[in-house]
Amino acid sequence: MASERDRTTGFYHQTLETLSPVGREKFLSEELRKIVIHACQNAPAIQKKFASVGLKPGDVRSVKDLEKLPITHKHELASLQKEDPPFGGFLGVPMQRLKRICMSPGPIYEPEDTESKNDRWTQAFFAAGFRKGDIGQVTFSYHLVPPAFWFEDALHRLGCIATPGGVGNTEQQVKMMHDLHVTGYIGTPSFLMAVAKKALEFGYDPRKDLALEVGFVSGEMLPESLRSELEETFGMVIRQGYGTADVGCMGFECYHKNGMHFPYNCIVEIVDPETGKQLGPGETGEIVTTVFDEAYPMIRFGTGDLSYYTDEPCACGRTSGRLVKILGRLDQVTKVKGMFIHPANVDEVAARFKEIKDCQVVVTREGHVDQMTFKVVLSEGITPSDDLAKQIESAIPQSMRVRGKVEFIERKSLPEKYSKIDDQRKWE
Ligand SMILES: [Zn+2]
Known about the structure:
The chain is of the alpha/beta class. The protein has helices spanning 14-17, 21-42, 44-52, 74-83, 120-128, 147-157, 170-179, 189-201, 224-234, 343-351, 386-400, and strands at residues 72-73, 98-104, 108-113, 135-138, 161-164, 184-187, 214-217, 237-244, 248-252, 260-261, 266-271, 285-291, 301-310, 322-329, 334-336, 339-341, 356-366, 369-378, 405-409, 421-423. The chain has a domain at 345-423: ANL, C-terminal domain (GMP Synthetase, Chain A, domain 3).
């Protein structure tokens, strides 16, 4: 019973989602100036952060100026809050103005403002294809942590109805989806898979007996193969978003699913983890975010996640940059010839060649120069050749921005369990 809603085009906030680069810079810098003044007046932790580098609020006037400020890392928040409970000095409004306080592992407490203008998840839901009148089943946890509440808010802002499924209770959840003709799914990809299984057990045809048309998933990796399997099973469109409990939404896919657009109302920097300087398109670094949230004004919040972005135009018409891919955690990176490489980069190279069965990158140092060797185990029936080595060698810099040499090896020369990057450099 497919509805006639157009889920593939349009914007939640057309003007702000389609700004020119100059217009966006102007908009973001204005918002930044406002939140910096507010935060420095009201949040002692931000005051301290400015004072630690001898800056005044007026010194941070543009996105580029953010580089002057230190990054507050996610892993520091728990101890900062412990020292100065409950919010570590980051609360920017009187306590009475809060509507909700959640708790994430750490513990870290996250305050939420009654007067919040934060519609970043709403942009994400619109881009995913949610429209007024949808019934969206929220299958994230309603206990302690914030996402389920955020996603309900996003549904309400779009004029949708929420069904609070929460975690587990798959039978009741499938029944609810069936009986209420739920059109939207909000949850993890793996729970949607569980829904499909349970529906089949009930004798339902997921395409005909359930009304799901649109899904927003988060919290887990979404391999393309899993996405297509789920989309096929339910006859629905599934898009994903990226965020953390501390700062909320930082990226979301549109219908064209070619990376995750930055919401119009936050600043996402990709930053060199060693220098804190902003990196350009295609360069891998830490995702660092500044949000314009008066209650919890995180300014230069370091997620510890690694990614790179593109500013190529997107067919949807949104003009913001896009996170191409979340590569993994910062603590897994290795620096080679000045570039950060991550196990996910190694997998990316391997994925381009069906001839590659296993591989490992070995980093060594010869005469004060880093050397990268790509050890390749070939699939059955493939014989090593110079030609193949050359092809792989030319693919390596595309994913890793560093050149490397290919060496073909037997599987048995690698241990049973091995790490994707073996850093053998000695620094004494
Ligand atoms: Zn797009």
